[in-house]
Amino acid sequence: MIVLRVQVFSDAREVAEYLIAQVPVLLDLTAADTDVAKRILDFSSGVVFGLGSGMHRVDRNVFLLSPAGMEVEGAEAAAVPQS
């Protein structure tokens, strides 16, 4: 697992690269400006949807992005809807 503390949108590409490589990502957006955090989250949601991965809220502005086929225990209640 890798922890990414993303503050600028240009760093969002790293999220996709790790997920494509099947590496779980703990995405920390707490230091990002609100608008930037929304853009990064939208981008990450698209990557998650495209790869069939999972997205789970851990805390406010902190998300666990899990590669396809990876089971996350205790995260069912916090799962972010993918529809």
List the helices and strands and how they pair.
Blueprint: E1 2-5, H1 12-20, E2 25-28, H2 34-51, E3 54-59, E4 62-66
Parallel strand pairs: 1-2
Antiparallel strand pairs: 2-4, 3-4
Compose a concise summary of this entry.
This protein has 83 residues and is an alpha+beta fold. The protein has helices spanning 12-20, 34-51, and strands spanning 2-5, 25-28, 54-59, 62-66.
Plain-language structure description:
The protein is α+β, with helices and mostly antiparallel strands and 83 residues long. The protein is built from 2 helices and 4 strands; from the N terminus they run βαβαββ. The chain has a 4-stranded mixed sheet, with helices on one face. β1 (2-5), α1 and β2 (25-28) form a beta-alpha-beta unit. α1 runs parallel beside α2 (34-51). The longest helix is centred in the middle third of the chain and has 18 residues, at 34-51.
Overall mean pLDDT stands at 88
Q: Which overall shape is indicated by the principal axes computed on the Cα atoms?
A: globular
Question: Radius of gyration, rounded?
Answer: 11 Å
Strand-residue proportion: 15-25%
Order of helices and strands: EHEHEE
Order of strands, widest sheet: 1-2-4-3
The helix/strand class is alpha+beta
Low-confidence stretches: none
Helix content: 25-40%
The end-to-end distance, rounded to whole angstroms, is: 25 Å
Number of strands: 4
Largest sheet: 4 strands, mixed
Output the number of helix runs: 2
